[in-house]
Amino acid sequence: MKLRFKKILCMLVSAAFCVHFYPVYAAEDMKVSQECIELIKSAEGFSRYKYWDYSQWTIGYGTGVSEDEYPDGITEAEAEELLYSAVVRYEGYVNNFADRYDVSLKQNQFDALVSLTYNMGNIWSAYDTFDLKTYVINGSENYSFLDIAKGFGEWRVAGGSVIQGLVTRRQEETKLFLSDREDYSGEVWRVNSEEGTNLRSEPDINSERIGFMKMNTIFYVTEKMTTGDGYLWGKVSYEGEECWCVLDFSKYIDGGPIECIEDGDEVSGEKWIITSEDGVRLRSGPGLNYEKLAIIPKDKEIIVTSTAEADGYLWGKTKFAGSEGWCALDFAERKDNQDAELPGRTLESIYISSMPNKLTYTEGEMFDPEGICVKAVYSDGSEESIPDFTLDGFESAPGTHTINVTYMNKTASFEVEVIQKQLTGIEIAKLPDKTVYSQGEQLDISGIKVNALFNNGTAEEIQNFSVSGYNHFIGEKKIVIEYQGFTADFNIEVIEKKLTAVEITKLPHKLEYFKGEQFSTKGMIVYAYYDNHSKNAVTDYTVSGFDPQKVGDQVIRISYNGFIQTFIVSVKEHKERPLTGDIDGDGKRTIFDLILLNQYAENGYNDLEYDKFCAADINGDKVINDLDIEILTYMISQE
């Protein structure tokens, strides 16, 4: 997998980036688009757990947090929400800058500047002047897209070295800033070979040669392709005609990495003319931190014998007023009638002069390049340490992995060993939502979060653990979580269940009575409900409110442990006693009455209406039995 260096919040004075010189106001200010959010997410990468990022604790998508925040890590969704909250601060920095200088920004320009600010801090107030700030204040439309690209490219150096992660990010921000520009036609390259490069009609070394570009010629590439012969070709415009050149002999410089081209023997160099109204400083070396030797005035012609890139400028070695030094060629123009080429050297190979401090990893650990030193070997026999190489090949999986070091299409490699991570324990990172139960409730561990702990310092949430220790007895319980022989525990409490309600779910069969009849609960069902969501039918309730001698509606009260439910019954006056034995009520005693009497005696008669009961109780003993059948049989036989 590809590795990239994390952002380093230091350019020349890293602490200055975090200084707030102006308050942040949000009213009526611009807000970033989702395109900006996605750019930041892509550049920062996602980290579930916080880490120390040189000057602060960082988590998610490069968001600063305090040491005590997010001890259990963060999800990608949470990280994005945190990013949305954090980016408001950096929107404020850019809005304040724009308001202060009355600058109107388009959405793509605002997004690019906020991404830069999120990465590098509030450079708009920390530094009085720098190129990109000047371009934006004066109107970026007044500058070429090469100027804008170089302005972003100034912010690719950290700790005195070019960081490849910053190089890539500045390129993406440049593209976003210039995305609405019609003149932004492609990438910016510079001829890097001392032999120069040919221009051909087609991307083929056998096609017609229609031109030539000397070393250090800066040009635009509008299309790229790799051919079968292994060359990377770029389409360029030459004297109004489209043509192709081999990019293997050129260098991508739109925010790209630095490569110095040193001088050799005395040669006749190229002629350049100073164009800056204020002239240009001659320094003892190629960079802004070297000693100032003199000022070369405007329109002065100089001879450049060597070039180098540093601090975002192309530097030329020259002599002026008896001193030999370096000046920034960004403030000069090269004369086209010079045929002499600048002396240079070619890169022959690279090698690892010092291995990384860490060569053995535990599964899940991130690669650490600390301690590695890579050197470039040039055609003139010189060697230099190179800071902007790339690394790939590391996988945080058990086994031996070859790490490839690449610089300018040259490679070197070394091996690292990744050993399998070992489980060292488990932890309950979050308790269940429910820790107090009523007697009889089932255990519910919803909301619990259990982490497996490994010897590489990482933690992973697990699901397939076992749970024990729960019972329904009242008191405190220790619940044990077990996973692959490791345990962790937490306490819950079981308390006595409480009655919460009583309900009559079915009324008695008999709701109408004649005066003198006794109340019957037959058919009635009563349920008790508890706070543990359980219920059960009860029979040990008490009944009150019934008076068999009181005619009219009566409220019957069912009481159970302090809870009461009621219903209505009615009591009526007696009717005249019906004809004994006339059970079907047709006014005479017949065989049909005898049949009904047999059914009542056999199947029960408790639910009979009063009139029918009186007619069926032949002998008046308040019981319907075989004796009544015998008497009715005789009575029917006599009639």
Helical element count?
A: 10
For the biggest sheet, the summary is: 4 strands, mixed
Mean pLDDT: 82
Low-confidence stretches: 1-27, 254-267, 336-344
What strand line-up does the widest sheet have? 23-28-27-26
Please provide the count of β strands: 42
Radius of gyration: 47 Å
Helix content: 10-25%
How far apart lie the N and C ends? Answer: 113 Å
Shape: elongated
Query: What is the SS-derived class?
Result: alpha+beta
Give the amount of beta strand, in percent: 25-35%
Per-chain topology:
Blueprint: H1 34-44, E1 47-52, E2 57-60, E3 63-65, H2 76-100, H3 107-120, H4 123-126, H5 131-138, H6 145-153, E4 157-158, E5 161-162, H7 164-177, E6 187-191, E7 197-200, E8 209-213, E9 218-221, E10 223-226, E11 232-238, E12 241-246, E13 250-252, E14 270-274, E15 280-283, E16 292-296, E17 301-304, E18 306-310, E19 313-320, E20 323-328, E21 332-334, E22 347-354, E23 360-362, E24 373-378, E25 383-385, E26 390-392, E27 399-407, E28 410-419, E29 423-430, E30 436-438, E31 449-454, E32 459-462, E33 466-468, E34 475-483, E35 486-495, E36 499-506, E37 512-514, E38 525-530, E39 535-538, E40 542-544, E41 552-560, E42 563-572, H8 591-603, H9 610-616, H10 626-638
Parallel strand pairs: 23-28, 30-35, 37-42
Antiparallel strand pairs: 1-2, 2-3, 4-5, 6-9, 6-13, 7-8, 10-11, 11-12, 14-17, 14-21, 15-16, 18-19, 19-20, 22-24, 24-25, 26-27, 27-28, 29-31, 31-32, 33-34, 34-35, 36-38, 38-39, 40-41, 41-42
Helix pairs in contact: 1-3, 2-3, 3-7, 5-6, 6-7, 8-10
